[in-house]
Amino acid sequence: EKLAQQHGSSLLNLTELEWLPIVKDAAIGAMLDLIRDDLRALNIKHDYFFSERALHKAINGSSLIDEAINYLKNKNLVYEGRLPPPKGQLPDDWEDREQTLFRSTLFGDDVDRALRKSDGSPTYFAADIAYHKDKIDRGYDALVDVWGADHSGYVKRMSAAVKALSDDKVLLDVKLCQLVKLMRDGEPVKMSKRAGDFVTLREVVDEVGVDAVRFMMLYRKNDAPLDFDLVKVIEQSKDNPVFYVQYAHARICSVLAKEASGSLSELNGADLSPLDSPDAQTLMLELARFPEVLSDAAADFAPHDITFYLRDLAACYHSYYDAERILADDPVVRKARLALVAATAQVLKNGLRILGVSAPEHM
User: Fold this and answer.
1) Is 327 within 8 Å of 255 (Cβ atoms)?
2) Contact yes or no for 281/346 (Cβ under 8 A)
3) pLDDT tens-digit profile of 200-219?
4) What is the largest CA-CA distance in the chain?
5) Burial class (CB in 10 A: 0-12, 13-18, 19+), 338
6) For the segment 231-259, what is each residue's pLDDT rounded down to a tens digit?
7) In terms of DSSP bridges, do strands 180-184 and 171-177 run parallel, antiparallel, or are they unpaired?
8) Are 2 and 166 in contact (CB under 8 A)?
9) Do 273 and 336 meet the contact criterion of CB atoms below 8 Å apart?
């Protein structure tokens, strides 16, 4: 419909060679707009989008893939040779032929890898080499790739390529991610790409909200499977970590709102010596872990550590709240306990903000 609005019936009078590039560009552009819109719905912004088509586009007779292969060739890392047949049953498309190969075994790979297909076009691997060379040429000295777990066998060859392209000066860190299994109240949501029966990420966001999606996606290590239950993630129970953490923050805000003496502005100078109970001590020790948790999570590319920490902190607060009356009659004790719970609210809010999740004051 959009193409018809833009071009009328003129495309019908063109040959396929003429109309296909126009339709392809419009279709790809529309899909990218949908992807960006879905990302925005999740509060995700990419600073840079890179199209694989840019790697294949020839400028003055040479593409970025050609340049990458020539770069490796000039380092004597490309040769014409034959590969041994793969172990086990031979795949139908295997050919025993002379081909252009990259010396990936020099950099820790099991076998050398093909760079050109039998028709002379580049392999997927050659395109990936060109993409990583582009990132290195743009000045990056540490690269992070996010792949599906079914690509684990591809890690060695890509690591070998990055070592060759950078003289072993650039680090490639590949994060393998398991699939997300969509559930509804314990039952799998059946999907079939072939039948066109599937649930999009945007539909999940619209149904359960941004907070639930972001928190639960970060609640597992990237290499661990995730069962995402559309019912459980909006359930108001302690078994739902999103609710459990947000409720802890809202619960503290409710306590602080009841404090009308004006002492909240003076909590920094509170005498904390009354905080000598086991529950208070446990909560303070948990708060003290926050900087270390953040530092380790950043260094290890492990945002799930923050979600686990916030869940544990919420549990400590709920236990403390149940054990002691925050608004005690003794003003010194009252002020000390208010200072502790205000600090807890601040850490909960900071942690949730880092995850891109809201910290509601009322629930």
Assistant:
1) yes
2) no
3) 888 899 999 999 999 999 99
4) 87
5) buried
6) 989 999 888 999 999 999 999 999 988 87
7) unpaired
8) no
9) yes
